[in-house]
Amino acid sequence: MAEVEKVFISGLHEELAEDRVINEKDLDPEFAKEIRKYGGKNVMTCLQCGNCTGVCPISLKIDYKTRNIIKCCQFGLKKYTLGTRWVCATCYRCYEHCPADLNPAEVMIALRHIAVREGIVPPFVKIAATNLVKYGQSVKPDPEIDKIRVELGLKPVHADQERLTAVVREIQTLVHATKYDKLIGIQEEVKL
Amino acid sequence: MNSYLYFFGCVIPNRYPGVEYAVRWVTGKNGFDMDVKECDEFSCCPVPGIFYSTDKDTWLLLAARNLVLAQPDRRDILTVCNGCFASLLKATEYLQEPKNMGKVNRILAQVGKKYTGIPVRSEGRRRIFEPVKVRHYIEVMANDLGIDEIAKRTKHPLKNLRVAVHYGCHYLRPTERTQIEDPNDPVLLDKIVEACGAVSVDYEDKHDCCGAGGGVRSHVVDLANSLTQDKCRNISAAEADCIVTGCPFCLLQFDNAQRSFAKDGIPVMHVSQLQALAMGIDPISLGFDTHHVSAHSLLRKIRGS
């Protein structure tokens, strides 16, 4: 677990503790606006009550505290929120318990949108998106499982190749239309 | 009786085919003989931890494409996975906004599709539409069929079987507007388990997250497993024989994570598999071979009871 903290908590506390002073050049006054653009509510309404941290299953485990992330969002301390955004399980317990109706999980999702647009795309996102444009599903079909399917009397996952080609074509058209292929970096998989 | 469309998603067909078989069996002729149809044009829901997290426009578009497929037959989409359920339900809510619907339909036109929802009545010359209905397997079983009906059809009550139920976050908190039941005190899965003749044991932190969702399993597997370990510790303390969940991704997490911290582990299954067992299916059809935690001793206990 120590390894997890080192890698994924990107020094939120370390750096804050070491610096003590928050450097003005690290403050992004547009950050709260940017979060709203991607579907997060106004982080300025956060009361810093800490309910979200109290009910967060991840906060119990590692040094990731929902309230601190929201505080950083309020300040516009973009760089401190960089490493933490993908450890949220989106269980929405924080939303359930938020007296300010803020929905911190949606803020994390907005932070992920921002990260991806800054070119930080986790490999598993690329893998799932590639599977989607290739097989129409995010999980890669497994020939061993297909054998078991047939034994059970089920059809193989892609029994109808023609249908699969048509579905995949539709998906690729849609993914290309929103430029998602370019955003995630899977252009070469989209063959239209 | 309502009519439905199967929506199995990605994890069930590609990792746990036994769950697909169980669902088809329970809803089919040997089971409750429900009106459920196939649709082989469905794609990934798409998975909220990836697509809803990185680009909501693409997520909504791909979800709308799936919803459109349910329009012609006016059937409810029967999801068997919490992720599919939350993703598609959330999409129907987004599409209630005329602005979102317009934006989606402009792009969907490129593939010859249009999301309207399902027409319910006319007011003068205006037709009134309702969003496509997205349903969860547990809720359909408990509300549409009824717990009494499930109990009535239990041929082999799973007596003395101690079950730890795990609802999964996205069954309890699917969206901001909709909830199936009280997320702090859900009862439907417990009731289904009890209708199968088993005992649903109470355990500490019963409604905690399995740890897998939102990309955590894919991103930091150790962190996800450590959450699962806590849950399994509490489940062991309650002396449960198995874990029953309504979500294949939670199933996958419990099933895989236990390899990292337990020698034998607690068998995990989907609620449909438990139902099928209680209704007298041959366990060989339930594909327990694809589960990492062996279910052999559990099945022996069930047969003995």
Task: Please outline what is shown here.
The complex is a heterodimer of chains A (192) and B (305). Helix content of chain A is 52%, strand content 0%. By secondary structure, chain A is an all-alpha fold.
SSE layout:
The complex is a heterodimer of chains A (192) and B (305).
Chain A: H1 2-8, H2 12-19, H3 31-37, H4 51-55, H5 66-75, H6 93-96, H7 104-117, H8 123-135, H9 143-152, H10 161-177, H11 180-184
Helix pairs in contact in A: 3-7, 8-10
Chain B: E1 3-7, H1 11-15, H2 17-27, E2 35-37, H3 48-54, H4 56-68, E3 76-79, H5 82-94, H6 98-108, E4 118-123, E5 126-130, E6 134-136, H7 137-152, E7 162-166, H8 169-172, H9 188-195, E8 199-200, H10 216-219, H11 221-237, E9 242-245, H12 248-261, E10 268-270, H13 271-278, H14 296-304
Parallel strand pairs in B: 1-2, 1-3, 3-6, 7-8, 7-9, 9-10
Antiparallel strand pairs in B: 4-5
Helix pairs in contact in B: 2-13, 3-4, 4-5, 4-6, 7-9, 11-12
Describe this structure as you would to a colleague:
The complex is a heterodimer of chains A (192) and B (305). Chain A is an all-alpha fold and 192 residues long. Chain A has two domains: 2-117, Alpha-helical ferredoxin (Fumarate Reductase Iron-sulfur Protein, Chain B, domain 2, Orthogonal Bundle), CATH 1.10.1060.10; 123-189, no CATH class. Helices cover 52% and strands 0% of the residues of chain A. Chain A is built from eleven helices and no strands. Chain A has helices at 2-8, 12-19, 31-37, 51-55, 66-75, 93-96, 104-117, 123-135, 143-152, 161-177, 180-184. In chain A, helix 3 packs across helix 7 and helix 8 crosses helix 10. Chain A is elongated and about 60 Å long. Residues 1-11 of chain A have low confidence and may be disordered. Chain B is of the alpha/beta class and 305 residues long. Chain B has two domains: 3-135, Glutathione S-transferase Yfyf (Class Pi), Chain A, domain 2 (Up-down Bundle); 147-304, 3-Layer(aba) Sandwich (Rossmann fold). Chain B contains 14 helices and ten strands. Chain B has helices at residues 11-15, 17-27, 48-54, 56-68, 82-94, 98-108, 137-152, 169-172, 188-195, 216-219, 221-237, 248-261, 271-278, 296-304, and strands at residues 3-7, 35-37, 76-79, 118-123, 126-130, 134-136, 162-166, 199-200, 242-245, 268-270. A four-stranded parallel sheet of chain B has the order 2-1-3-6. Chain B has a four-stranded parallel sheet with strand order 8-7-9-10, with helices on both faces. A two-stranded antiparallel ribbon of chain B has the order 4-5. In chain B, helix 3 (48-54) packs across helix 4 (56-68). The longest helix of chain B has 17 residues, at 221-237. Chain B is globular, with a radius of gyration of 20 Å. The chains are: A mainly alpha (192), B alpha/beta (305). Chains A and B meet through helix 1, helix 6, helix 7, helix 8 and helix 9 of A and helix 1, helix 2, helix 3, helix 4 and helix 10 of B.
